[in-house]
């Protein structure tokens, strides 16, 4: 295809260059997904580059963002990442926005120019959800089992950490007996935490913290036999008292509304 820029006409060959060209694009994903507010990294690999330049161009306005390792835009969120001694020329977009979504061209200054389009999708930040009640009662000696879901694929969610308080839990934690499982689908990431032989010291605030999603927390109580039912009843009573308070507030509001309406009617002059 051709386009005009600055009074000059440029010719671009779309897609991966064939083996007869001096520069050949490597196989990289043509679709990239990033999370709002985080970094997007668009891949481009060029073999047999020689003395040619690699540029990144934003398709929607044909703005030249970078040439080689240099940036040609006033938006300092755009940078090139070129690891030494490699054929990779990544375009990094820091703190990506919804407006950044679209097609970007990795272009090589051959004649005619060859260009590889990369499509960027920007998703809203998802929320983690630890399944079950907000307070969990576990008997001493049993296994703590927590399941956390995020409504997005793992490539969007990133790695998932589990914490008790501010301490990260993993296989090598001094406590021992900790295991984790991750289940991945294109639209769901599930992380499962297991801690065997629970003791009182395991009680506390547990957080599921994906790298690119909002965290969720629950409180775990490790109780002795016989304490569980009393603690659970106490928790339910607290919820019940809160519900009763809401009901009485609604009753009071209805009563006030009724009194005001009656007062207005009695104050109205006869017709």
UniProtKB/TrEMBL annotation:
Xref: InterPro entries: Ig-like_dom (IPR007110), Ig-like_dom_sf (IPR036179), Ig-like_fold (IPR013783), Ig_sub (IPR003599), Ig_sub2 (IPR003598), Ig_V-set (IPR013106), Immunoglobulin_dom (IPR013151), Zig-8 (IPR037448)
Question: Which PROSITE patterns does this entry report, sorted A to Z?
Answer: IG_LIKE
Q: Which residues cross the membrane?
A: 244-265
The UniProt entry, under SUPFAM superfamilies, shows: Immunoglobulin
The UniProt entry's GO biological process terms, in alphabetical order, are:
synapse organization
Recorded GO cellular component terms are: neuron projection membrane
Q: Does the keyword Zinc apply?
A: no
Task: Tell me yes or no: is Membrane among this UniProt entry's keywords.
Answer: yes
**Which protein, by its recorded name, is this?**
Ig-like domain-containing protein
Species in which this protein is naturally found: Cherax quadricarinatus (Australian red claw crayfish)
């Amino acid at each position: 295809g051709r386009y005009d820029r600055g009074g000059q006409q440029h010719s671009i060959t779309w897609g991966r260059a064939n083996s007869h060209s001096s520069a050949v694009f490597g196989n990289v994903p043509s679709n990239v997904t990033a999370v709002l507010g985080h970094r997007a990294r668009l891949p481009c690999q060029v073999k047999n580059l020689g003395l040619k330049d690699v540029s990144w161009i934003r398709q929607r306005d044909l703005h030249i963002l970078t040439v080689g390792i240099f940036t040609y835009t006033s938006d300092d969120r755009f940078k090139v990442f070129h690891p030494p001694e490699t054929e990779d020329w990544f375009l990094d977009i820091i703190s990506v926005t919804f407006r950044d979504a679209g097609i970007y061209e990795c272009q090589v200054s051959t004649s005619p120019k060859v260009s590889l389009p990369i499509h960027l999708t920007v998703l809203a930040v998802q929320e983690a959800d630890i399944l079950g009640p907000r307070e969990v009662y576990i008997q001493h000696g049993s296994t703590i089992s927590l399941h956390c879901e995020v409504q997005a694929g793992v490539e969007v969610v990133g790695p998932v950490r589990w914490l008790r308080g501010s301490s990260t839990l993993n296989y090598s934690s001094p406590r021992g007996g900790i295991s984790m499982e991750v289940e991945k689908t294109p639209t769901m990431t599930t992380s499962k935490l297991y801690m065997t032989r629970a003791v009182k010291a395991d009680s506390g605030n547990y957080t599921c913290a994906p790298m690119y999603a909002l965290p969720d927390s629950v409180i775990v109580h490790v109780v002795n036999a016989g304490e569980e039912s009393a603690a659970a009843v106490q928790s339910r009573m607290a919820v019940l008292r809160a519900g009763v308070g809401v009901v009485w507030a609604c009753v009071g509001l209805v009563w006030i509304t009724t009194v005001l309406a009656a007062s207005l009617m009695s104050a109205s002059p006869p017709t």
